[in-house]
Amino acid sequence: MYSNVGGQPGAAMPTASPPMNPFGNSLYGASSGLIRGGLGAYGEKILGSSSEYVQSNISRYFSDPQYYFQVNDQYVRNKLKVVLFPFLHRGHWTRITEPVGGRLSYKPPIYDINAPDLYIPFMAFGTYVVLAGFSLGLQGKFSPEALNWLFIKGLLGWFIQVALLKVSLLSLGGGEAPLLDMVAYAGYAFTGLCFAVLGRIMLSYSYYFLMPWTCLCMGVFLVKTMKRVLFAEVRSYDSSKQHYLLLFIALAQLPLFTWLGNVTVNWLI
């Protein structure tokens, strides 16, 4: 806005500026810097400790997930032979160790037949669901709800098996084995279930032979594995208690396999 001041038309009207505070900017900058620095250090401390806590617990309970998928065709064939025919396994059952970073570490499955993997359990679980759904279709009982129930039923059976192995270790004062080891050992049960369900599809009477056989083989495999591999981490335990627990693990396979194998008659049971 222009006005006529001092006889000079069009001159700009000077505006008043706020009083200068020589301490304002310095105090504001110092306070904001302290706030930002303090919050940053505090946040970094919280996030850093949280990250270290999460990483330490993941490494303790879940180990390295990539470790369980280092497999090849030869390992898969040999591992299936050990799981389905444990009586024919003439080698040792202990895992092979190697020095890594100044400490001993287990070799991955591709170099050790006794190492647990998650490739076979996941593939077997998916095959089990597909074969069970196909079996329901042959009986005229297939439905999306039935397939969903088979999926949930398989996961529930897997969880029960993991809990059984974990509780057995805890009862002996152990439990330091990685959780994914338990998940892998428990998931091998679906390999035998796949053969049993496939036998029922191809020849119904063969199911009554394959189911007890795969159940027995899985019991022997878990007993050998728990005794030679997992229980080796328990420093002190009662031998009689160990034998009872091993027997209980083997006997528990029969009701579990029977329940998971019942996929054609009354799928809601």
Q: How would you sum up this structure, described in words?
A:
The protein has 269 residues and is mainly alpha-helical. It has 2 domains: 36 residues; 196 residues, no CATH class. Helix content is 62%, strand content 6%. The chain contains 8 helices and 4 strands. The chain has a two-stranded antiparallel ribbon with strand order 1-2. Strands 3-4 form a two-stranded antiparallel sheet. β1 and β2 form a beta hairpin. α7 runs antiparallel to α8. The longest helix has 38 residues. The chain starts with a strand and ends in an 8-residue tail after the last helix. The N terminus is likely disordered.
Query: Which descriptor suits the 3D outline?
Result: globular
How many separate structural domains? 2
- What is the element string, with H for helices and E for strands? EEHHEEHHHHHH
Largest sheet: 2 strands, antiparallel
Distance between the termini: 89 Å
Low-confidence stretches: 1-62
Which labels suit this protein?
8 helices, mainly alpha, disordered N terminus, two-stranded antiparallel sheet, two-stranded antiparallel ribbon, 269 residues, 62% helix
Short description:
The protein has 269 residues and is mainly alpha-helical. The chain has helices at 24-61, 73-84, 119-138, 144-171, 179-187, 189-202, 207-230, 239-261; strands spanning 2-5, 8-12, 97-100, 103-106.
